[in-house]
Every structure is written in C-alpha cells, then in structure tokens.
Amino acid sequence: MNLHSKVLLKSGQFSGEVRFRVDQIQLPKHAAKSNGKTQENGSSDTMEECKWGSYAKGALYALQRGGNDLKQGITGFICGTEGLDSSGLSSSAAVGIAYLLALESANNLTVSPTGNIEYDRLIENEYLGLKNGILDQSAILLSSYGCLTCMDCKTKIHKLIHPPKYETEKNAETKFPYKILLSFSGLKQALTTNPGYNRRVTECREAAEILLKAAGKEAEPILSNVEQEEFEAHKSKLEPNLARRAEHYFSENTRVIKGLEAWSCGNFEEFGKLISASGLSSIQNYECGCEPLIQLYEILLKAPGVYGARFSGAGFRGCCVAFVNSDNADKAASFVKNEYFKVQPELASHLNQDTAVVICDSGDCARII
Length: 369
Known about the structure:
- With 369 residues, the protein is of the alpha+beta class.
- 46% of the residues lie in helices and 14% in strands.
- The strands form three sheets. It has a four-stranded antiparallel beta sheet with strand order 7-8-6-9.
- Helix 5 runs antiparallel to helix 6 and helix 12 runs antiparallel to helix 13.
C-alpha cells in the first residue's frame, strides 16, 4: 500500500519534490499557522509557499472534508506550457483538479464534475484562503468542444450552448471560424499574495449588505441575493467605490444574457463587443488590472480580426484573452507581439516568444486519460 503521495513538480514557479501521507489529516494553512502546528510532510513550508505542492495537500484536505478515507497515494509529475504557468489562465484551478482526479482514480472514488467543482472550491477558499468563486473549475470540468458553457454560480445549474451548424463544423476540415488568442503580459504573482483580489470580494459583500438592508431583506450579504431593481432603487446609498463594484456585477449579468443570445445566433461580432465591454467594466468599475495589462487589453482591441478582448481571470496579473476571426489569428498575434514590445520592452524581452501570444481552440473538459 502506497501511503506516501509524492508529486514531482516542474513549472516556472517551482521545481522540486513534495511528499506527504494520504492518511495524515490536513489542516488549512492559516489554521496550521495559528495553532503553531507544523505538518511533517517531508518538505519545508518555504519550498511550498505559493507553489503547486500546496494544491496537492489542498486536494487531500478537500477529499477528507468530503468524508473520503484515502488509502492509496500517487506518484506524479506535473508540468504545463513553458512560460504560461501562473499567467492568469486558471492555472490554480487546473492544478487542483488534476490532483483531485488523480487521487480519486488511485482510490477508486467516483465523484461527479459538480462534486469536484465543490472540492476545488474547498482547496482555494478554505485550504489556501483565496475568496474566489467556481467559474474556473466549472469551465474546466463542464466544457465541451466548440461550446459556450453557461454556469449559474448560485444554483450550480449549467448548460452548453452550441453555435449554429455545430455538428457540421466539428466534422469539417475548416472547423470553426474563430480562434481564442492568449497574450501574456509577463506579470506573475500568486493571487493569495495579492490583497486586491480578496479586497474586491469584501467590497462586494459590503455593497450587498447595504442594498439588502435598504430593500428590507434578510439574506446572506452577496450580490446574487440582490435583485437588479433593488440595486437601481438603492444604489445611491452606496459609497462610490462600492457602487462601482456592484455596477460591475449587475452589468456583467446583463452581458452574459446578451452574450448567450449572440453566441447561439452565431453573431460573433456582437459577442466580441460584449467581451470588450466586460474588460472595460473590469478596469473602470471593478478597478482591477495594472498598466501592462491595460495596455495589452487596448492593443488586442486594435489587432486585426479581433472581435473582443478582456483580462483573463482576476486581472491582477497574467494574461489577456481575445476572441478573433480565425483568418486573422496569425496577423493578430504578430501585431500584439510587436505593439506590446513597444510599450513594455522590459517585460516583453523576458517572454518566451513561442508562448507570448498563443492561438488556440476551445476544448473538452478535464478527464482521466
């Protein structure tokens, strides 16, 4: 019986080895520190801080929290595209899910995609202390080739939206008339070390609390418990920064509804405009991003064939993502590389030119091969 789970890691952040026992009770990082407890795991906290090894332990923590008694460990090797680790492309969710799937497979556990979405939320929210939601995990575990994945993060209800003529295009040589463009800024920072991310979550809760009180409602202070009409009626009671956070939330919901309609009709131009509007609201209302990312966003909007662009993820580091006409994808990639070097020569000079701008397609969900 292999009770030692050993994971060999290689990434732009970390190279090394992490060992721990799957029969050892895992505590959240903040709880272990506050109790003065050091878990004997065969590797130092310094080595693991903000590294992918923490997510392996987090996966064990989540599975234990779910009442699973693991007996079998794993020996694994993890790697990703060089230069794109920790680039704002849901790296943490992807790694966490990979560990969950591996440990479940080794222990013959059958867990639904929605179950693993919740487990990965436990890794990030409880074990690591990051106040993010379930969007990334849902995209990774529920997606299907060529489809738009719609997830209601409150109800957990999801559906796949096919573009017109999906089956014909999937089997045709030309595939789809669009590509996804990923452009890396060169900024790397773990969200767990950036106070801006968690602060935005707190501000949204503060806004929800004020709006719910004004509406005479008793509910958990989250904006999804506030109706659009209630926000419009009582937003004057919010301080300016809280009003902007709430405006971003409610305008995003509207853009999602319009985006579903545009996608299902094959109106990619309108879909792209909504993506760009989302990016602008992230900058103006949610006030995330920084100069390099904003410059990258603006460059993408000027690139040939780009329908729309926005930050990838939280916008405090990493990548911008663009929706581009497939015929112009190569031109757009070259344009972005050249223009970004002009405004950020130092950051651009350290980028791997093979992965500074990546042209890709949407794919199927994560699974055991």
